[in-house]
Design goal:
Oligomer: single chain
Helix content: 25-40%
Distance between the termini: 104 Å
Shape: globular
Structural class: alpha+beta
Radius of gyration: 30 Å
Largest sheet: 21 strands, antiparallel
Number of helices: 7
Number of strands: 31
Length: about 475
């Protein structure tokens, strides 16, 4: 009996020692991986991340990451020489609490469980602390991640709902949730998010937004080149405002936007498709939309895209400037190499469908642009490059809509000329009449040059470009 008890105790002690050893090893491994990720991706130019104060214990660890966002070029001072209200950088400090595996609390068998919360914001720490007092739920971890033994990172972000009143404004937000799984072994990234409804109401105005959601399922086909499917949906947003003097009610409604994309790679070339559906916009009693835009990008050189992504990270990693001009100069060679590489893959842009409805008419069109490239293509010979471009397009617009666009453009130019003294001080009605005359003359000029043709109540054009020659509505046109 005593012998069995000794054996049992020895077995339990052995398990505890093994568990403690595994936990300690996991803690070392986790710290190494955590530090490595921050070191690799910690400098993206205007956005930098650094790790500080990593405290590793036997069962748990605690650390902080400092995220700093710098505004390109900084924010200039006010004309009086006083500091601008906006800062030139914003710093957010996140605190992470790590539970080491193999039996991390609340996550089962895993390398670790990580809880993340915001602890400080600079500038604006005083306002942040006031927000914590008003909304205690913000003190809780908003991101919980689980690191599996396969190296996968399973994350869930949960920003809780908020309801409050500020002065006369009543605010209500349903919160935000997001889930994702990243697998370095399988080179996949998948997830979904939901931004819930938001409403705001004052005595003079009201806003109601139904939120947004999306999902993605991607795989790394080449280094830093992810292909797959993703979707984003922006739900309806309604705004109403009343004039306190007249009582007149103004309403605005964005009916929604849906964007769906898919891409693939055969190891060399990347193919991409995207479809955007705009449900419509109503304001001042008029509705604009619906609208549809379908785009294809074909034969994009995958190796070129991969190299481009890596070079962008390298430029950010080595650069210590936030000046847009200096960054643009550093990116120029990268862009040049990307264009040269894209030309080798015979790239193609295809706008399969463009359709938009306006109160004055509709727009329908399509466009196809192809480049017959190859490694022998030289960017130093524009004439030779033009010979390799092929394009075709069809466009049809209701004439009323064309007239309206031309009138608005002409009226704006005439008003600017009046303000600068280049026109007599004519009344707005006189300027509107001149704008209508100019618009009609412009449309007739386009018809006379055969750039457009009339087809009932629509203006249409068909054009093609091949071997350096431009043909519009069946007629050769000089390029210059």
């Amino acid at each position: 009996m005593k012998r069995n008890l000794v054996i049992a105790l020895a077995f339990v002690l052995f398990c505890l020692v093994g568990w403690a050893g595994a936990t300690y090893v996991n803690g070392i491994r986790l710290e190494k991986n955590f530090s490595g990720l921050v070191e690799k991706y910690g400098n993206l130019g205007i956005l930098s991340v650094k790790l500080e104060d990593y405290q590793r214990g036997l069962l748990t660890a605690k650390t902080r990451t400092v995220v700093e966002l710098k505004f390109p070029g900084g924010v200039p001072n006010s004309p009086a020489g006083e500091p601008a209200e906006l800062p030139d950088k914003v710093q957010i400090v996140f605190e992470h609490f790590l539970s080491h595996g193999p039996l991390s609390f609340g996550s089962g068998l895993a390398l670790a469980r990580i809880e993340t919360r915001i602890v400080s914001v600079s500038p604006g720490q005083a306002q942040f602390e006031q927000a914590l007092q008003r909304f205690p739920q913000l003190k809780e971890p908003f991101l919980v991640s689980r690191v599996t033994y396969s190296g996968a990172l399973e994350s869930r972000m949960d920003v809780q709902a908020i309801e409050t009143q500020i002065d006369t404004a009543q605010l209500k937000w349903g919160g935000f949730t997001a889930e994702s799984v990243f697998s370095p072994r399988n080179k996949t990234l998948a997830g979904a998010f939901e931004l819930r409804a938001f409403t705001a109401r004052t005595p003079e105005a009201a806003l109601a937004w139904d939120g947004a959601n999306g999902h993605f399922d991607l795989a790394e086909a080449l280094p830093l080149v992810y292909v797959g499917k993703n979707a984003f949906k922006l739900s309806a947003c309604r705004v109403s405002m009343s004039n306190p003097e007249t009582g007149e009610q103004n309403n605005f409604e964005l009916k929604g936007l849906d964007v769906r994309s898919s891409s693939s790679c055969d190891g060399k070339l990347v193919q991409m498709e995207q479809a955007m559906t705009f449900a419509g916009l109503t304001m001042d009693g008029q509705t604009y939309g619906p609208g549809v835009l379908e785009i294809e990008l074909r034969n994009l050189d995958g190796e070129g895209l991969s190299t481009y992504q890596q070079q962008i990270l390298e430029v950010f990693g080595k650069s210590d400037t936030t000046s847009l001009d200096q960054l643009a100069l550093q990116f120029l060679p990268v862009y040049s190499q990307l264009l040269a590489k894209m030309a080798e893959g015979n790239p193609q842009l295809n706008i399969r469908r463009l359709h938009f409805v306006a109160p004055q008419g509709e727009i329908d069109g399509q466009l196809l642009v192809s480049f017959n490239g190859g490694k022998e293509v030289s960017q130093d010979d524009p004439a030779a490059l033009m010979q390799r471009v092929e394009a075709s397009t069809e466009l049809a617009i209701h004439e009323r809509l064309v007239q309206l666009i031309a009138i608005n453009s002409a009226e704006g130019q005439l008003k600017r000329a009046r303000e600068t003294g280049n026109l007599p001080q004519l009344s707005d009605a006189e300027l509107a009449g001149m704008a209508r005359q100019q618009a009609s003359a412009q449309v007739e000029a386009l018809l006379a040059q055969n750039l457009v043709v009339r087809d009932g109540d629509k203006l249409k054009t068909t054009a093609s470009f091949r071997q350096g020659e431009l043909v519009v509505n069946g007629q050769n046109m000089p390029l210059f």
